[in-house]
Write a structure and sequence with these properties.
- The complex is a heterodimer of chains A (about 260) and B (about 160).
- Chain A is α+β, with helices and mostly antiparallel strands and about 260 residues long.
- Chain A is about 30% helix and about 20% strand.
- Chain A contains 11 helices and 12 strands.
- In chain A, the strands form 3 sheets. Chain A has a 5-stranded antiparallel sheet with strand order 4-5-8-6-7. Chain A has a 4-stranded antiparallel sheet with strand order 9-10-11-12, with helices on both faces. A 3-stranded parallel sheet of chain A has the order 1-3-2.
- In chain A, a hairpin with a 2-residue loop joins strand 4 and strand 5.
- In chain A, helix 10 packs antiparallel against helix 11.
- The radius of gyration of chain A is 18 Å and the shape is globular.
- Chain B has 2 domains: about 80 residues, Roll (Ubiquitin-like (UB roll)); about 70 residues, DNA polymerase, domain 1 (Orthogonal Bundle), CATH 1.10.150.
- Chain B is built from 5 helices and 5 strands, in the order ββαβββαααα.
- In chain B, strands 2-1-5-3-4 form a 5-stranded mixed sheet, sandwiched between helices.
- Chain B is globular.
- Classes of the chains: A alpha+beta (about 260), B alpha+beta (about 160).
- Chains A and B meet through strand 1, helix 2 and helix 5 of A and strand 4 of B.
């Protein structure tokens, strides 16, 4: 293993290659290092990280280096507090970052589920901007490092998040669900129900005209459309398919619970 | 494999070490600095036994790249007692039987210290939240929670 340290994210971007991993909070990467992961041999890190969270005319901007604890300390993103609180224990929340969560493979990555439901844009270190969904689709071979994400503040009461885990309070997700119930253009995203956080096209179609009882029933019966759950040690594919509509129904009927 | 120099303040002591590339802080504290008060538990961020304070904030030392702590302040259980005088948390843990096998204790103490530094009068819920990243398989947690509340009260000069 070797470690390459750069001053800025822009400089570090040039050093990331097939056998190199960028170090964010370390909660996932350092475990791989310690346990002898042979898929990479270089750690790339930047000394200056963007941990700022703030709002401007274009919406809200969260630096990729912001930790879950930073999110919890910011009133600008209070609607994301239930999401950040659902991740890890206090120490992990002090370390794990928003940027790192985008690249966290199953069963992690609950924050990315919420960001995708909020139609986040990823701001790359080279200044390019791309929809988070595009970045997630190519996250195993990303074309650069993430500097920040931007989102629009959801209207009050329209954003919902639910994490389903067997061990409370810090068990990993069997699945997580985030919904942004914008009229006409709703987003419903599942985590751990496909290789990356994935939109449920069936549920979104059913909820396009509102969230009355009929729409909720239709959304639940169609929610697996677009998803591809797998067997893993936390749950079988069969179990995930069985319980996904149940948890979506609770999310839609009961509001924000986590 | 070239080693990298790292300097940090460990329990008020300026400490300079050469670390292997990719070494985690837990290994460096235990094997490099010889501070065995920080435990190596699961090594993957589940158990919290390796909790140390970096600039006052609880971190998992097993998941911290050692060289990323350059110039920072690290506090471990080894720095809690002032000479022969135990820290009030240590006294309360001892008197309240908050340690059985003792493996989680070092991490519990550091999580508790970070809480009391920030919140001198914590509620029971604050304490539960603060140690929610630390596993204990012996005590059932109640004696630990009670000990932290006892220590907080004593440090505030309140009778318990």
């Amino acid at each position: 293993m070797q470690v390459e340290t750069f001053s800025t994210l822009q400089e570090a971007s040039g050093a990331v290659h097939d056998r190199a991993q960028f170090l964010a909070g370390g909660t996932i990467l350092m475990r791989a290092v310690t346990y002898g992961d042979q898929s990479f041999d270089t750690i790339v890190r930047a000394q200056q990280v963007d941990r700022s969270i703030g709002s401007d005319a274009g919406g809200l901007r969260i630096g990729a280096g912001a930790t879950m604890a930073d999110v919890l300390a910011s009133r600008d993103v209070d609607f994301l507090h239930p999401v950040a609180r659902a991740i890890g224990g206090p120490q992990v929340r002090n370390m794990g970052t928003v940027g790192g969560n985008i690249f966290a493979r199953n069963p992690y990555g609950d924050f990315a589920v919420a960001l995708l439901a909020l139609d986040a844009q990823a701001v790359m270190a080279d200044g390019r901007t791309m929809p988070l969904g595009d970045l997630l689709a190519t996250r195993e071979r990303p074309g650069g490092l993430v500097q920040a994400v931007t989102i629009a503040r959801p209207e009050s009461g329209t954003f919902r998040f639910r994490k389903v885990s067997r061990v409370k309070p810090k068990g990993v997700s069997v699945m997580s669900i985030a919904a942004h119930l914008k009229r006409g253009d709703p987003r419903v995203v599942f985590g751990n129900m496909a290789p990356t956080p994935t939109r449920s096209v069936g549920a979104e179609r059913a909820l396009a005209n509102g969230t009355d009882a009929g729409a909720i029933a239709a959304a639940c019966s169609a929610c697996l459309e677009g998803l591809a759950p797998a067997d893993d040690p936390l749950a079988t594919e069969w179990y995930r398919r069985e319980v996904a509509p149940v948890h979506l129904k609770r999310l839609l009927e009961e509001g924000a619970r986590y | 494999m070239a080693k990298t120099p790292v300097t940090f303040t460990l329990n008020d002591m300026e400490t300079a070490l050469f670390v292997d590339p990719g070494a985690n802080l837990n290994d460096v504290l235990r094997r490099g600095a010889g501070d065995l008060t920080t435990k190596n538990g699961c090594g993957q961020g589940t158990c919290g036994a390796c909790t140390v304070l970096i600039d006052g904030v609880p971190h998992l030392s097993c998941l911290t790249l050692a060289e990323s702590t350059e110039g920072r302040r690290i506090d471990t259980t080894g720095g809690l007692a002032g000479g022969p005088e135990l820290h009030p948390l240590q006294t309360a843990f001892m008197e309240g039987f908050a340690a059985q096998c003792g493996f989680c204790t070092a991490g519990m103490l550091m999580a508790a210290k970070a809480l009391l530094d920030k919140t001198p009068n914590p509620t029971r819920e604050d304490v539960v939240e603060a140690i929610s990243g630390n596993l204990c398989r012996c005590t059932g947690y109640e004696p630990i929670i009670d000990a932290i509340l006892t220590a907080a009260a004593r440090m505030q000069g309140r009778a318990v």
